Amino acid sequence: MATISVPIGQTAVPNRKMPSLATYLSWSIDHKIIGVQYGVTALLFFLIGGALALAIRWELLTPTLDVMADGTSYNQLFSIHGSVMLFLWVIPMFGAFGNYILPLQLGAKDMAFPWLNAFAFWLIPPAGIMMLMGYFVGQTEAGWTSYPPLSTLFSGDGQTLWAMSVHLLGASSILGAINFIVTILNMRPESMSIWQMPLFSWAILATSFIVVMATPFLAGALTLLLLDRVGGTAFFDATRGGDVLLWQNVFWFYSHPAVYIMVLPGMGILSEVLSVHSRKPIFGYRMIALSSMAIAGIGFTVWAHHMFTSLQPELRIPFMITTMIIAVPTGIKIFSWIGTIWGGKIRFTSAMLFALGFLSMFVIGGISGVMLAAVPFNYQAHDTYFVVSHFHFVLFGGSVFAIYAGLYHWYPKVTGRMLDERLGRLHFVLTYFGFFFTFFPMHIVGILGMPRRVAVYAPEFTDLNRLISFASFVLGFSTLVVIYNMVVSFYRGRVAGANPWRALTLEWATTSPPPAWNFDDDPVPFEDPYGYGTEAAAAYLDAIDATFGVPDNTGSAASTPRLRPATAPAGD
Questions:
Q1: Which band of pLDDT confidence, cut at 50, 70 and 90, is reported for residue 153?
Q2: Is the Cβ–Cβ distance between 507 and 560 less than 8 Å?
Q3: I want to staple 137 with a disulfide (CB 3.0 to 4.6 A). Which of 124, 154, 298, 375 is the partner?
Q4: pLDDT-derived band of residue 502, with 50, 70 and 90 as boundaries?
């Protein structure tokens, strides 16, 4: 196998222009265009979901109703906040990374089914609009939809629109997952065995298997719900012979594996970022890869821990055991990542800071998850803010921190420009402390007995809720920093070059941004995508620089500082 030769045979072009705006607003079968479409759409919904979250915290500044008309309006608010954040932010954003980066990492020209890829994306915008319409239409007692002609066009049945929206989003996920699986299994170059795949690709593979196996259960649950609402059936209506617990089972059979749909891709991003930015070979490559597949499998055996208070007593212990067992493959990843950075030449870039932030926050979420896995503790903490805290430490402290790490890591590849590191560090500090002081105190109010899903609470919780709300406003402001950074850097950021991080995976062995065809010739991957610390790796990286050039260190607006000496020392 070639280990030092130039991986591709392109013309030495240091930078390429991104496609026009019109290209991103139209149908395209280029996986890179689709990846950006996914990402921008998800970011827009993130801003909407974040605004809804701030409205929730504004309401909870005081123990009385100040913003919402009543408790029902508050319930509608946090329900749509959660739906937007999960279905329209985290899952599509990881779809953005998968669509853009995966074919490049595998040395493929595109996804296996380009047309299907585009179709999967274009299901998302109408589904998102339908979901938001469901929120406004659901306000039947007051609001602008209660007046003609909107009251004639819409029945006020926001939940039906919500169910139809999630149906479309589930179909999009299934189509995307099938595409990822076929691409990974069939479109790698001959010189890349499955044990040479980057760990991000392994994470996408495991996630895709979960999507294909779990999402049909959600589709089935939504179909039964829609039939109950518009077809006159009674699957979930206990007054007509239905079973309310049936909904809990079919919903959670999807929704707990869905947690790993929203975490596993982030774990894949972490493996890439930690190794590159600490210049260390990944510790326990095969164990990290296999632990992703183990999580995908075991994840289907834990759904009933959400139902401990309604589950038959003899079933509680088996699900408690499986819930604790799934912490094992996650622990394998945590200790492998620590082993990766241990003794490394760590560069505290913005990407690395968010990756380390993921490690600290996700461990807290994991510890509280093991606590909730214990039936006696779960009984006490069920439906309290302790659960809200745990959930956000996993899905914000985990997923969103990983998304930010991926943005800072791959933004140069997508745009050809570097993000401003000073703004990146400011973004990290605001996010880290804003997040921690928003959600960690929720452990305390939860243990003290404050229930979730309430807008009116006991006055003794006022001080902690004010701290939580003020911290959430800081967290909300931090989002504006990264958006500003991305927009300004797109136009004025320093030129990145093909491989600004000196990484060994194939997405860095082409121009930034890549051409429409990704690679001129069949790429030859380096023998170890994380094999830092050898002369062969240094020679391989120098060959990439010789092919595409390295931006100079003049400090001009169109340049980026070198991350290494002109002549790389052996072992880089």
A1: very low
A2: no
A3: 154
A4: very high
Q: pLDDT tens digit string along 234-248?
A: 898 888 888 888 888
Q: Which of 566, 551, 440, 425 is nearest to 493 (CA)?
A: 551
Query: In terms of domains, do 185 and 330 share one?
Result: no
pTM, two decimals, is: 0.91
Paired strand residues for 384: 451
Lowest mean pLDDT of 46-55, 153-162, 444-453, name the range: 153-162
State how far the Cα of 447 lies from the Cα of 368, in Å rounded to an integer.
12
> What CA–CA distance (Å, rounded) separates 265 from 43?
17
Among 421, 484, 553, 495, which residue's Cα sits nearest to residue 17? 495
- The domain that holds 125 is classified in CATH as 1.20.210.10
Q: 3-state DSSP call for residue 484?
A: helix
Which ranges of 231-263 would DSSP assign to H, the alpha helix?
244-261
* Mean predicted confidence (pLDDT) in 23-28: 89
Q: Is 384 helix (H, G, I), strand (E, B) or coil?
A: strand
Give the chain's length.
572
The boundaries of the domain holding residue 388 are 263-286+303-489
Mean pLDDT, range 315-338, rounded to an integer: 94
Would you state the structure tokens that stand for residue 170, as one six-digit string?
């589930």
Pairwise CA distance, residues 348 & 519, whole Å: 31
Residue 425: is its pLDDT beyond 50?
yes
Cα(220)–Cα(167) distance, integer angstroms: 9
**Distance from chain centroid for Cα 554:** 36
The neighbour count for residue 568, using CB atoms within 10 Å, is 16
Angle among Cα 128, 133, 139 to the nearest 5 degrees reads: 145
In the predicted structure, residue 352 carries a pLDDT above the cut 90: yes
Q: What value does the mean pLDDT of the chain take?
A: 88
Nearest partner of 41 among 113, 86, 96, judged by Cα: 96
Let me know how many helices (H) and strands (E) the chain has, helices first: 21, 0
Domain final residue, candidates 489, 524, 545: 489
Phi, psi of 533 (to 5 degrees): 100, 15
How far apart, in whole angstroms, are the C-alpha atoms of residue 546 and residue 6?
A: 9
Residue with more model confidence, 158 or 213: 213
Please report where in the chains the tokens 């500044």 appear, as a residue. Answer: 61
Is residue 132 located within the same domain as residue 273?
no
CA distance 69 to 237: 28
